[in-house]
UniProtKB/TrEMBL annotation:
Keywords: DNA-binding, Transcription, Transcription regulation. It holds the Pfam family TetR_C_33. This is Regulatory protein TetR. The keyword Transmembrane helix does not apply. Residues 9-69 form the HTH tetR-type domain. Residues 32-51 bind DNA. GO terms for molecular function: DNA-binding transcription factor activity; transcription cis-regulatory region binding. It comes from Desulfocurvibacter africanus subsp. africanus str. Walvis Bay. SUPFAM superfamilies: Homeodomain-like (SSF46689), Tetracyclin repressor-like, C-terminal domain (SSF48498). InterPro entries: Homeodomain-like_sf, HTH-type_TetR-like_transc_reg, HTH_TetR, MT1864/Rv1816-like_C, Tet_transcr_reg_TetR-rel_C_sf.
Length: 196
């Protein structure tokens, strides 16, 4: 029984690895059950033994993306000053959006990926862990009087929404009203404005 479970997990990983290869070549639109099956020399129908369909595979890719983002955020999570930590976490978020645009769009904008409400014990644990870093830093800032006291959830979502907006505008080349020489400092300026 253990052997079969391990084999199934290994096959799921092979499928996800093949999907990652396709995804990194051209985004989620080129990921298909047929192309994945070709890549691992498997029949498309057999993939359904491991995943319900493309949406489940994209969700697994999204988890990989969240894991990448979390691994980038983790080193700054121990920054002692919570306001500086929050600023650094937001910088990492913006850098991730710029450096991993396909993963960023998959995680936050792809209409085929509908994340369940992430919890610590859920299948979407990487999303939960990533969000928790932001919320914990926000809450600590409030507790120390570094941010206006209030609901940490609302503050975190507001800050995250602002960062998502900046990231989307920058990565989509939509900052036409901002002079080119200000683009590099813009993200920091917006962050400092939000965190006043």
């Amino acid at each position: 029984m253990e052997y079969q479970r391990r084999d199934a997990e290994q096959m799921r990983e092979r499928i996800i690895d093949a999907a990652v290869h396709l995804f990194e070549k051209g985004g989620s639109s080129i990921v298909s059950m047929r192309k994945i099956a070709e890549r691992i020399d498997y029949s498309p129908a057999a993939l359904y033994l491991y995943f319900k369909g493309k949406k489940d595979i994209l969700l697994a890719l999204s988890d990989r993306g969240f894991s990448l983002l979390y691994q980038r955020m983790l080193p700054v999570a121990s920054t002692p000053d919570p306001k500086e930590r929050l600023l650094e976490l937001c910088r990492v978020y913006l850098a991730f959006a710029a450096e991993e645009p396909e993963y960023y769009r998959l995680i936050f904008s792809d209409p085929e990926v509908h994340y369940p409400n992430p919890t610590e014990d859920s299948a979407s644990k990487p999303a939960y862990l990533t969000y928790s870093l932001l919320q914990d830093a926000t809450q600590e800032c409030m507790e120390r009087g570094l941010l206006t006291a209030g609901d940490p959830l609302a503050a975190t979502v507001g800050m995250w929404s602002a960062m998502h907006g900046v990231a989307s505008l920058l990565s989509g080349g939509r900052m036409h009203v901002v002079p080119q020489e200000r683009l590099d400092s813009l993200a920091d300026d917006v962050l400092r404005f939000i965190l006043r």
